[in-house]
Amino acid sequence: MRRLITATLSALILLCVPLSPPQGCGTHSIGWPPLMINPLRVGSPAATSLRPGAPPVQAPASERGAAPSAQESISLEPGKPVERELSGGQSHSYKVTMGSGQYLHVVVAQRGIDVAVALVAPDGKKISEADSDHLIEGSETVSAITEMPGAYLIEVRSPEKTAKTGRYEIKVEELRAATVEAKYRVAGESVFREAERLQNGTLEAKRKSIEKYHEALDLYRRATDRSGEAQTLNNIGEVYWLLGEMRKALEKFNEALPIFQLVSDRRGEAVTLNNIGAIYWALGETQKALEKYNESMPIRRTVGDRIGEAQTLNNIGAAYQSLGEMRKALEKYNESLAIRRTVGDRNGEAHTLNNIGAVYYSLVILWERRRRRWRGSIKLC
Known about the structure:
This protein is an alpha+beta fold. The protein has ten helices and twelve strands. A five-stranded mixed β-sheet has the order 3-5-12-7-10, with helices on one face. Strands 4-6-11-8-9 form a five-stranded mixed β-sheet, with no helix packed on it. β8 and β9 form a beta hairpin. The two termini are 23 Å apart.
């Protein structure tokens, strides 16, 4: 029996080595159970809250999964989304014909595959590009104010050659004469993306990213873009989380939450509730953390955010583990694990397996302590 316990402990210790510090956002290790802080990117709510309009146009079967050349580019029109299948390493091309001085806002909703989106002017110059954190849900957006008339190309590609086949929907959300507000919005998106790049860098770069996010925040407010404002506040909170400044992170998440609720952005609301819960967990206020996770969970399910649902289940498991409720922790980790396997989230699967191992490690240690106490109380005749 002693040999069995020793072997089991050795195996579980290997599972419970703390993960390395996070680079950027997503999974964060505090002790054994990695928590999930969710990033929100410019335009990301559009994946689950697209404006009502015409149903998506299905690309012809001969084109699905193909990588058309510029000559085969599909024309996009406002209010007529196009939904297509995309595999790793492939790209699709679209065109939008515009005059000068127009505002264009394109949203690409990701459904099981990460995409990068680029907007190219008639002269071949790339004027906008988006590829946020290799997410396979949420959305990517490109916006611009045109300087010349002609056909603008939009390239949608899979940056990962080995990515599994998924789907995406591309839609021209807005195409109209540029206003002062639109100019502020485009400028805000540009500064926001600069801040994104900085936040994954050094300590100094992270501090600089907060400055840039505040610049973007001011531009979004000038544009009366409440969604952009809320997303930026969420990301400022995320950087403070990375810096270990939990109270400041909590302040920003609490500023973002009522704005997401005001603009009826359910996905953004769920993400922010999860993030607030993660902060409370880090501060040792575990019951408050559970309350926020349990507020986030039904919204995750309502909007169909399966990856987010798995993240919040993981966090609920971590909270129960902190409270010593190991059976409940295992139940939530196993629910999270099943979803992560279903959606192909291999990184998340590894983290949840790590957490399950940590629970079993704790149970074996507890059992060994009790066994020693029992052995001390046993008397031979």
